[in-house]
Design brief:
The complex is a heterodimer.
Chain A: E1 8-17, E2 20-30, E3 35-39, H1 46-53, E4 61-66, E5 69-71, H2 76-81, E6 84-87, H3 99-103, H4 118-132, H5 149-162, E7 167-171, H6 179-194, E8 198-202, H7 206-212, E9 215-220, E10 223-229, H8 235-243, E11 266-272, E12 279-283, E13 288-292, H9 299-306, E14 314-319, E15 322-324, H10 329-334, E16 337-340, H11 344-348, H12 355-359, H13 364-367, H14 375-388, H15 405-418, E17 423-427, H16 435-450, E18 454-458, H17 462-468, E19 471-476, E20 479-485, H18 491-497
Parallel strand pairs in A: 3-8, 3-9, 6-7, 7-8, 13-18, 13-19, 16-17, 17-18
Antiparallel strand pairs in A: 1-2, 1-4, 4-5, 9-10, 11-12, 11-14, 14-15, 19-20
Helix pairs in contact in A: 5-6, 17-18
Chain B: H1 2-38, H2 47-72, H3 80-94, H4 99-124, H5 128-147, E1 152-153, H6 157-165, E2 167-168, E3 171-172, H7 173-191, H8 193-203, H9 205-210, H10 215-241, E4 243-244, H11 252-262, H12 274-293, H13 298-316, H14 318-323
Helix pairs in contact in B: 1-12, 2-7, 2-8, 2-10, 2-11, 2-12, 3-4, 3-5, 3-10, 4-5, 4-10, 6-10, 7-8, 8-10, 11-12, 11-13, 12-13
The chains are: A alpha/beta, B mainly alpha.
Chain lengths: 499, 324
């Protein structure tokens, strides 16, 4: 049947990091001229598989054939020469340079005397854009800074095509695009497909897969659990494959329901920012409220708006029933609201500071008495947090850079708690930390809520939200599209609801 | 698992860092011993000469204390040398109106220059490197213009005594000024909220902002503080030399920044100590003194000083080079 060799045929790929197996023998096949989706939960092994195909990692075991030829890529450069190009989520374009210059960045067209052949380059770029059917909206001489996000994505693809890519890897290509741009992207993908380019399409947006992909590979726990034609499956079947029947490690988190007539500790009324559209929600004392949504859905933006990072265009934030003005993180902290940000290393910590200095960073105002810092009180607070949160450190003076991810996260949470916050906003606090640390973080948050505080909990793991939160709001493209109470929410339902 | 894998590397890194902070003291002792032996017959170790070193180091170290704050906040100030001259000239010109008026005015002029720097950095968002490069030119131009390139004499004995020329027994008033500013600077950086916020802003301005620290305001404050200390250095120059001239401070840029960096403050912010800066400044003062005693002429001194600065920074900044 198979007349042409497969674009990629990978067999028995294994990869482990520090003794933890991430890929446990994955087979993967990509036919020439097909669009192939790879889906799986966080940690299923998608990105490791892609990094192996892209030459960034080398597999411990297994072999890869490209169009029938066995290959071994030592670097991404090798992979690119082999015809593989990856378009990353965060685009790698130079804003200040023109479209044509970006396309030919890797292989400049030089004329005599080693000077750049600007005109030839523009002509070639024009030809390429025409071939791709996007010449009507992108000019070769246009600076990249003037392109929309979607157009930049097209340009990334054009760059890959200019480098003679026969296999294109698109990583969450629609995450930052408008609906209109998504439609154009799909047209472009069809176009490339017709020209024989094979495309690997990675996404969390399962509905998109049914619009554009020919076949699907589902990964779970480092194994390929299903390979199927899109026409032969449905979204529910995919979800079941992604989740599997994993051992239920979840703990029962029981909290009393708020008394009727109780005032919410935090309330948003029709809050709009540049990314949010009339978001309303309520969090009662002692409650943990979840925000479930895909990457780029607006879940982080809701927290940012409450914390004073994004300007509020309309709507109200109420703390204890009183409207408050929050224009900066400082205002938020003064109102008793604190944020555990998404990126603990870049946004939460000063890595070269000690554990103690990090823990006290939000509460320096309270410690100034009135000129000199009350060091003894600071030490007491830090020692208490280290003990209460069970932060594993050689002492309060240890540099935070040298702690494990889970312990760094606890330091960030401790910092927020030390500033006597009554409302804690947690942005994916369990991301990238091991299971034991995850449970500890949740225990800490649970105790914090039990003391009568309010928590908003964002996570990319829906199982975590389903078992941990008292109520969950569904976020999609900047709006609240649904709400579930504890007894209604399950991982499967949340996963289906966020689509 | 994570912890177990990282543990040996962690311990090694920690040792490397402690070793680096110690190194500056070793450099200090080595240079001191070197001059003590080679310049023994020229009187390097005489108490008079040692007080001389302190006198020569005072202005450098006062400016270096200010620069420690600026670099700790991951900013830079290239205009402070110009402020030194403007402040010296201001105090000298206004002394006939009374000492307090003159000193107050000179400090205010310094604070105003720092405020201009700080507002452009914090409100307009121009990098401090560019702002202070520009204001350095403007301030020097103003100083040259108002003095018409003349030296302004100082004939107020009380002023000269308090601000530079006087001795309390065997101790120069400059030494007292230096110690006082060093102690105040140390307390401000280590023991107050302001100091912690400076270090946090320089260490990671995003985390600092997320922690409720007003990073822009901190930038403004450190530039004002640095300018006021530069103005104080200018006043002390005027008192010690009993005159003021537009060229004052023009050779101090390299020495002040070198003193701070040798003292262990990171050029990229977040790390800095006043104690280290003081040792760095003393190294610079000692080198200057030693080179003069060796009988080198100005050209040779410049060359040697450059070599010694690069040598000391190479030794003490080892951890920074490896990081990137």
């Amino acid at each position: 049947m198979q007349t042409t060799p497969l674009a990629i045929k990978a067999t028995g790929l294994k990869k482990q990091f520090d003794g933890t197996p991430v890929l446990k023998g994955v087979d993967f096949e990509l036919a020439a001229g097909e669009v192939h989706a790879i889906v799986g939960q966080n940690g299923a092994g998608k990105s490791t598989l892609m990094k192996i195909i892209n030459g960034l990692y080398q597999p411990d075991e297994g072999r890869i054939e490209l169009f029938g030829q066995p290959v071994h890529f030592a670097t991404p450069r090798d992979a690119r020469e082999g015809g593989i190009a990856m378009v990353y989520q965060d685009l790698s374009l130079v804003d200040s340079m023109s479209v044509a210059e970006n396309i030919f960045m890797a292989n400049w067209a030089e004329s005599h005397f080693g000077l750049l052949d600007q005109r030839g380059m523009n002509l070639q770029a024009q030809e390429l854009l025409e071939q791709m059917g996007i010449a009507d909206e992108i000019e070769p001489t246009q600076p990249v800074a003037t392109l929309s996000m979607g157009q930049q994505q097209f340009l990334e693809i054009a760059k890959a095509i200019a480098q003679k890519a026969r296999i294109l890897i698109l990583d969450e290509p629609t995450a930052s695009l408008s609906n209109q741009e998504i439609a154009r992207l799909f047209t472009l993908i069809e176009h490339l497909k017709a020209q024989g380019v094979a495309i690997i399409y990675i996404t969390h947006y399962l509905r998109d897969i049914f619009k554009i992909c020919d076949s699907i590979t589902v990964l779970r726990d480092g194994r390929c659990v299903r390979r199927v034609r899109t026409a032969d499956t449905r979204i529910e079947a995919l979800l079941a494959d992604m989740l599997g029947h994993h051992a239920d490690s979840s703990v029962e988190w029981v909290r009393p329901t708020p008394a009727p007539g109780m005032e919410p500790l935090l309330e948003l009324r029709a809050l709009s920012t540049r990314q949010l559209d009339a978001v309303s929600l309520r969090v009662y004392p002692g409650q943990v409220v979840g925000l479930a949504g895909l990457l780029g859905s607006g879940r982080t933006e809701i927290l940012n708006a409450i914390f004073g990072l994004d300007p509020i265009l309309s709507g109200e934030v109420l703390v204890n029933g009183q409207p408050v003005q929050i224009r900066s993180p400082r205002d938020a902290i003064e109102q008793g609201i604190n944020l555990v940000p998404e990126d603990r290393r870049e946004q939460g910590l000063v890595l070269d500071f000690s554990v103690m200095d990090n823990l006290l960073m939000s509460s320096l105002r309270d410690l100034a008495a009135p000129v000199l810092l009350d060091e003894q009180r600071g030490q007491r607070i830090a020692a208490d947090l280290i003990q209460r949160l069970q932060i594993k450190t050689s002492g309060p003076q240890q540099t935070v850079r040298f702690l494990s991810g889970g312990n760094q996260q606890k330091v960030v949470i401790g910092k927020c708690m030390s500033a006597s916050a009554r409302v804690l906003l947690l942005d994916d606090p369990t991301f990238g930390i091991d299971l034991a640390a995850k449970l500890e973080v949740m225990r800490i948050v649970n105790n914090y809520a039990a003391a009568g505080n309010a928590v908003i909990f964002v996570s990319s793991e829906y199982g975590e939200i389903a078992s941990f939160c008292d109520a969950t709001y569904i976020v999609n493209r900047g709006r609240i599209t649904g709400q579930m109470q504890r007894h209604e929410q399950s991982e499967e339902q949340l996963l289906a609801a966020v689509q | 698992m994570d912890i177990a894998v990282n543990a040996p590397a962690t311990a090694a890194k920690k040792r490397a860092i402690q070793w680096n902070t110690l190194l500056i003291y070793i450099v200090f002792v080595v240079i001191f011993l070197f001059f003590s032996i080679t310049l023994h017959d020229k009187g390097f170790l005489q108490p008079g000469n040692l007080m001389n070193i302190a006198r020569q180091t005072a202005m450098i170290s006062i400016m270096a204390v200010g620069m420690t704050f600026v670099l700790s906040a991951a900013e830079i100030d290239l205009s402070f040398c110009a402020i030194v001259a403007l402040s010296a000239v201001t105090v000298a010109l206004l002394l006939p109106h009374g000492m307090i008026v003159a000193v107050g005015a000179a400090l205010l002029v310094g604070a105003f220059c720092g405020l201009v720097n700080g507002l452009f950095v914090s409100k307009v968002g121009i990098p401090s490197f560019l702002v202070t490069l520009g204001t350095a030119g403007i301030i020097t131009g103003i100083t040259r213009w108002i003095t018409e390139l003349q030296t302004i004499p100082v004939d107020n004995e009380t002023f000269a005594f308090i601000f530079g020329s006087g001795d309390l027994g065997p101790i120069s008033v400059l030494f007292v000024w230096m110690v006082a500013i060093a102690v105040l600077g140390h307390v401000l950086l280590r023991k107050t909220r302001f100091g912690k916020e400076v270090l946090a802003s320089g260490g990671n301005k995003i985390s600092a902002m997320y922690s409720g620290i007003q990073v822009n305001r901190i930038k403004l404050y450190v530039l004002v503080l640095n300018a006021v200390l530069a103005a104080l250095a200018g006043i002390l120059y005027a008192g010690r030399l009993q005159s003021a001239r537009y060229t004052l401070g023009e050779n101090d840029l390299m020495m002040v920044i070198a003193a701070v960096i040798i003292g262990g403050t990171s050029l990229f912010g977040g790390k800095g100590t006043v104690a280290g800066t003081m040792v760095g400044a003393l190294i610079m003062g000692m080198v200057n003194n030693g080179l003069v005693l060796m009988g080198l002429n100005i050209d040779q001194q410049l060359i040697f000083r450059g070599v010694i600065i690069i040598f000391s920074v190479t030794l003490t900044m080892g951890h920074l080079r490896k990081k990137h």
